[in-house]
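W.,

You were right to be curious about this one. When I first looked at the sequence I had no strong expectations either way, so I just let the prediction run and decided to look at it fresh. Below is the sequence, 428 residues in total, followed by the output.
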Amino acid sequence: MKKISVLLVFSILILMAAKGTDIVYKKLSVFSQVYSYIKNSYVEDIPDEKLVYAAIQGMIDVLDPHSAFLTPEQYVSIREGTTGEYAGIGVEITIKESEVIVVSALDDSPAFNAGIKNGDVIVQIDDKFLSRKITVDEVNKMLKGPVGSEVTLRIKRKPLVDLITVKLIRERIRMQSVSSDLFDGGIGYVRISSFQDKTYVQMREAIKQITEKAGGELKGLILDLRNNPGGLFEQSVRVADFFIPEGVIVYTQGRGKKEEYEAEMAHPDDTQPDYPMLCLVNSGSASASEIVAGALQDHKRAVIAGTSTFGKGSVQTILELEDKSALKLTIARYFTPSKKAIQEVGIIPDIEINEVAAEKKEEKKEESLKEKDLPRHLKNKRKQGQDEVLTKNKLLENDNVLYQAYNYLKAIVAVNSNLKKGKSKDSK
């Protein structure tokens, strides 16, 4: 390993010097000297791989924050994020007040089948009690492992006093990046949590299912991109293309091409009907999410609602290296179809809806007095079931921002419907 690492260092020096100036060559000579001094004279022996990786990291540190050197282990984790597959128990966690809390267990996963629930607190994994300073990444690393291996969790669940012990067998987990629902009035809802390699296919299938559930026609659609950190560039383009029949989806501009733009174009095939559409974003919507939101906004295909997005207007590529490590490198900037820069600015929503916590169920407002509450009021003999109140969808009940967005879109649908009826009457 030592011989390989030393050869790698000097190969890098030779290649860089060949392309550089005398000044660069002299600086690389200094690098070689430092490496030699450390290997021969430092008080402790430092592994060659550690020195080489540290030197590479030093180069990366002068670049933008989205460029990175990935060790083989980190590269595996990145691939899992884009493919949506990993070996584990299928549970999403968060940390709140120093406790590791289960957000959800994926359907038909080992965690789901074992009865692990939202709100469960994981206090121990195998023989290790979780410290108050542990991170989500550290917990996820402990929960993952080879397919078929066993992991034991100790869980605190209210209102039980005693801890619950759950033994699980790890399986191959396939994460869904798309979820959907159908709200009252034929309004569809699709949430994309990240852009993975199957996101477009999953979204198409989700919209197909809710369209069938709506009787074959959606009256409107809410596309939720909140807290979507991005992902695969190509998938974001395909998602935008699904709603936009023609024109530019996004421009990219590489190094040294100040006046040159490369365009990703929409295609008329397999485009969704022109129903009213609202796209939800917030400060957690970044990169690929901003590509989709920017395209929908510039083409007037959707109303963008929420708060300003993150503002990451750059494209990265991942280059696998010969030792299975990788280089994630920023190679271009991207711009919306109207050539608005997203970097630092983000996508400004058409309608601002601030993140407001949903009201707690127990904090119910007193209802105003109505005619039906008065003693001896007259009965409506023609109401024919009008007193049946539709139960609010759980998503809408627990998400105040989504509820406001739903009401905005419902109003747009109603106005469009009334306008069509008015035109129909005028033509008769």
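Here's what jumped out at me. Residues 396 and 403 are 5 Å apart (CA to CA). And, maybe more interesting for your project: The longest helix spans residues 400-427.

Coffee later to discuss?

I.
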